[in-house]
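Dataset card, provenance and construction

Sequences and ligand SMILES were collected as paired inputs. For each pair, a complete structure of the chain with the small molecule in place was predicted and serialized as structure tokens. The example below shows a pair involving pyridoxal-5'-phosphate. Curators did not alter the output after generation; any descriptive sentences attached to a record were derived from the structure itself.
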Amino acid sequence: MAVEWSGLTPEIMLQLDRGIRGTLGIQLQAALRTAIRSGRLRAGERLPSSRKLAADLGLSRGLVQGSYEQLAAEGYLTATAGGATRVALTLRQSTTARPPAGAAVDTVIDFSPGRPDLNSFPARDWLWAYGEAIRAASRRDIGYGEPAGSPRLREVLASYAQRVRAASAGSADVVVCNGFTQGVGLTLRVLREQGTTTVAVEDPGHGEMTMQVRGAGLRPVPVPVDAHGVVVDALRATAATAVILTPAHQTPTGVVLAPERRQELLRWADERDGLMIEDDYDSEFRYDRRPVGALQGLAPDRVVMIGTVSKSLGPTLRLGWILAPRRLAPAIAEEKHRNDWGTNGLDQLALARLVESGRYDAHLRRMRRAYAAKRIALTEALRQHAPHLRLTGLDAGFHAVATLPEGVDEAALVAAAARRAVRLHGMRRYRVHGTSGPPAVVLGFGDLSAYAIRSGIARVADLLQPRPD
Ligand SMILES: Cc1ncc(COP(=O)(O)O)c(C=O)c1O
């Protein structure tokens, strides 16, 4: 995947990622907005002609003209009588963003895990689906809907989960929620009402799970994760009767829950009359053509599976779904009712249209290719600059873990990288109660271009080297 940079002025660079087709205009507009807002392009500054910029970037002139027109309509740019396009004089810009003369680094490269490619939000498809939803909406669709969610979306989600995740559910088992975060909160509160006291969380794990469990009035207990996933013997040694897991791509280690561990977990659940809460947050993105089905499909009566569009479309939508055992679904829907009377109905209908139309699958196919290319950029950059690092967790999703050479101080490395405008995320913050483990960094690459990935690794390459004895 080629990444292209173009000199716009001696001080400004525009970065476009050609691997993602159909979004170059959106990328160009976003890059220009960022440059203007940050002050890298100053009020009154003249932009190159659309012909020149198009030639520099290898884009069509119409696409550049269209982007200029869009930004003019938004008030960022003005077209002057002589035909030149300039940054609008009325804009308020950051006064601190201009780097000191000679500074080589001006943009922060953030390897934050869990962030999808925000430039690739399928805006056109979403607009289309939303338009369809509004056009087809009945009077009833505009009123208060069923707290469990739109019957149509629940039908679509149940069949999607069967088709893509090998899950086993009917629409009566589905409760639509506002993303995974709300889904897990609703589930935990219902469990507490029904007598659960202790819930296991993965260690290392998603930092907010402990808070979620406590927030529901339950006691969290950490259970270690090894190269095969959660350690079931350790789970058995706790008093937990429920466990929250990320089987498809563990957060943060990236390991996929091994088949024998899945079987062991099912045995644990039977012995304990326990429940597994399956966080299915980024399962859409696997790279080796060996899709791993959901745990839910193996034991629908023992698993609450929670899906979300936060990684597949964008976190802003706050849309997710709970597939619950039949004995729990009504209580979860009731909790949803108490909580907010239901998720935005038009959003639900739009998501149903998006999935039914095949546009959702097409978007996922495009994104899988885009993330696969970014993943290659990361592995190649590390191979070039730090071949001794062990990189794991790359089978799925868009984060991986680089285990650091022994003796490297993880916190000091993260701080030193930050001084070079590279945000690395140390493994320590994912460890529950500060349990120990080898120094490592979690490298998210979803929202970075291949160029940024390579630049970021190059900027910190010397910090990643083994320390001389
Ligand atoms: C492992 C994991 N689960 C769940 C979520 C949250 O999902 P949502 O935005 O649907 O609440 C995140 C967000 O980053 C995550 O990393």
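Derived descriptions for this record:
Residues 114, 179-181, 206, 246, 251, 279, 281, 308, 310, 315, 320 surround pyridoxal-5'-phosphate (CB under 6 Å).
The longest strand covers residues 219-226.
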